[in-house]
Amino acid sequence: MRIYRIDHVAQLVPDLDAQVSKLSKVFGFRPVARWDNPDAGTRGVRLEIPGSWGHTWLVLSPAGTSSPLRTWLDEHGGRGGLHHVGAEVPDLDAALSELSDRGIKLTDGVPGKWAEASLSPPEHGSGVLFRLRGPGTLAMCGDDSPVAVPPSIVEDPTLGVVALDHICQAFLDRDELARWYADLAGFVQVWRTADDEHPDMADLVLNVPGSSICWEVIMPRGKDSFIEKFLSRNGAAAHHVTFQVADWDAALEACRHHDVPTFDDEQGVTDGAAWKHTFIHPKQTGGVLVQLFWEERPGVWVRSDKVAPVAR
Known about the structure:
The chain is of the alpha+beta class.
């Protein structure tokens, strides 16, 4: 199986309009289409992410009493969160055949149009959900007949997001998951921290074919790792999503303007160029831990503590 490109990241929330308003006013995302499809059990809005052409952000909410999305919210205590990553594959039938051969079971889908499954090694339980579609259809979330959203002007200061940089997944063994994704979907490892770089974690970065979005894998190290605690609560789920901002001071000022606190700030210098990052708690974002970063020159932040992988 090969993933041709990442299409979208989908967030599921109980209050659709409130979340869309927050993403517009705080993050600067632009709503471009919306739909209400009770037959599919889904209401949603598609938003453009500044600087991430071809990758969009979807906000979904349940429609109707029997919606699988309502079941997902109930299972998560009514809290929103990252629901799935949407991706395009060259041949959906071939992809489904390979998933079956690997023991991966589908969790949702419409025959001939799209399918949903966790693409993590099945022996480790559920991981990040992916929705896969092949050529010939664009709808994966009940958005068969979307209605265009007229452009609107956002007067409040926004974070100044210029790109969706990566999605981070927690897993017990970063190398095992990297090998799995490479074999399953062609992900390519490009950077990794040295084994002893951090006392409580180690990570690596994978390129996703056809996408500017990367995939980070973090694993626990040592005693009382925050990642180990995360895995015990959530399994091999998405840990956070990272956005690049154009102006660090302006981004922090926007957070203060909207009463959005940040935490775990870090800064440094790589190859003579400065970089900074911080986090926004899921309570402020509709259930997704968000990381913001700024870099003085392209590429210095992502490898600020990383080395090239050893050729195998």
